[in-house]
Amino acid sequence: MSLLNPENWTLWQAVAIFIASAFTIAVAGFRITRAVDQLADRTGIGEAAAGAVLLGAATSLGGSVLSVTAAWNGNAELAVSNALGGIAVQTFFLAVADMSYRKANLEHAAASAPNMMQNALLISLLSIILLAPFLPDLTFWGIHPVTPLLLVFYGYGIRLVHQARTVPMWNPVTTRETRADEPDESNVKANLGGLWGEFLVLMLVLGAAGWVLEPSATVLVQETQLTNTMVGILLTAISTSIPELVTSIAAVRRGALTLAVGGIIGGNAFDTLFTAASDIAYRDGSIYHAFSDQAKFWVALTLLMSGSLMMGLLRRERQGIGGIGLESFTIMVLYLSGVALLITGLAG
Q1: What is the C-alpha separation between 336 and 68, in angstroms, rounded?
Q2: CA distance to 157, 161, 206, 249, 266, per residue, from 68 (Å)
Q3: Is there a domain that residue 332 lies in?
Q4: Is 183 part of any domain?
Q5: Gap between the Cα atoms of 251 and 260, Å rounded
Q6: Are 122 and 266 a contacting pair, CB within 8 Å?
Q7: Out of 65, 149, 191, 284, which residue is the most buried by the measure of CB atoms under 10 Å away?
């Protein structure tokens, strides 16, 4: 059947498959939030750690599969722009989730040492990625030395996140608006085997949807005037990041504020590993040295957005303008400005 071969897809077939894959990712992402929230309480690992490792990895699976598949097929620009664009849009989604919580600014209510440690880890990993293109273009078995460095640094950072929860050296001041990470009694009694089973099935669905999304995105590039960078940042990155938007808003409405923030920041830190995995899959040399100027621009922009988020978590403004904190407003302006510069061709 021609439908099974992406080379035979028409533009409208690619659009339909793209939309169907994005919808599947959104639905599975919504369902997986509840499972992760229950696993956080049932296993005792806490919402911040669950958001970083379980929710972050699961909701990012579709994007990681897309980036690795694109890199394996030699499309470095799509692989990189999808990974970096996803981090930027997910930070933007956190500001959107802030608007859905009316009692206080999300940075105030969900402030915790693990979340700030995760954000510091994200900033460090993005800095390494931005530095990589300026290092010598050397590879060993087709892999740049920055790739194992990213993996090791991420593992070390997750260990620090866990320590920040179990043996914190300081804690944020508790106020009436602060929501502590306390287990829900009904979650503690949930069947552990069933929760893990549901979690794994939904992860497989997310991965399969990301795998189908890659060829449809490639057809969109071939059949339209859009570049790989624009498709990666504006289409695939947003589509594969829909679970982060859905899960963060769902977590906020469930009262799991630490999970909402931890899921976004933890997912962003995990998404930096897309670049490492893509470098391993990319067989034409170092993927870091295939970065376009637009890709470098998005790394720098995301660093600025992450720095703004860190200031919000530290300053902990109770009530901002229109129900949103100054830092969240800044994040939204930065992201929308970046999109405008990309569309007009002024970025890079």
Answers
A1: 27
A2: 23, 27, 14, 28, 20
A3: yes
A4: no
A5: 5
A6: no
A7: 65
Number of C-beta neighbours around residue 217 at 10 A: 28
For residue 232, give the DSSP letter: I
pLDDT in tens, 53-111: 666 666 677 777 888 888 888 888 888 888 888 888 888 888 787 776 666 666 666 66
What's this model's pTM, rounded to 2 decimal places?
Answer: 0.78
Q: How many residues does the chain have?
A: 348
Give the C-alpha separation, 161 to 279, whole Å: 26
SS3 143: strand
- CA pair distance 114, 146, nearest whole angstrom: 25
Q: Which amino acid is at 273?
A: L
As for how many domains the chain has, the answer is 1
What tokens does 321 get? 């303008």
177 assigned to some structural domain:
no
Q: How far apart are CA 303 and CA 210, in angstroms?
A: 25
- Report the CATH number that the domain containing residue 239 is assigned in CATH: 1.20.1420.30
Q: Is residue 185 part of a domain?
A: no
* CA 208/CA 26 separation, integer angstroms: 13
